[in-house]
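seq/struct pair 1
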Amino acid sequence: MTEISSYLDNLTQQVKDKISNYITDKAIDNTISNALKSHLEAKTNYLDYYLQTVSNTQHFLAESNFFRVFKKQYSLQAIDNSFLDWLEKQKPAIIQLIRG
């Protein structure tokens, strides 16, 4: 029984050491930095997409599945097909509201 306890204690210590080595200030800083960077890049990409849409009205109005692509691109949930169809029909009014 003592050998098993000693073996388990040794394994436990090895796991603790590996975790301690992995969780360092630098690793935490890198993780936070990467998370913020990807979040900010996603916002920038959305802004670029928005500006492209507003600046190219002809393409926006001509594209028949704009809102389905938008939903998929930005992983929007709980938007059913009937609402997407309604949005597609409302594109001229939507672009007017955006432009003010």
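seq/struct pair 2
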Amino acid sequence: MCVTEKEYVGCCVQLNGRHITDMVDQSRTIANRTFRKHITKEQYNQLELSLGYRNGCGLYLSTDFAVNFSRSKYRGRRCVYVTWSAIEYVFAERQPWH
């Protein structure tokens, strides 16, 4: 179950560099299990698959020493993100309807 449902916003190569820099500058490191509380199981599984995990190689996102999990704010919205191969994959609170 999610603490607060977040949506996948994109990765740093798709998003505005200034917004990513601001997000990274104010971030705090979190554990994988904390990261997983903020996104759905389906989102986590899709992220693992898209990054090449779960293909029988024995390496998992949760145990990869080269991966970092963080929380911060992206454009004023609370977010969590994964840094994998120096690329940030961002999940942020859903924007309220205007």
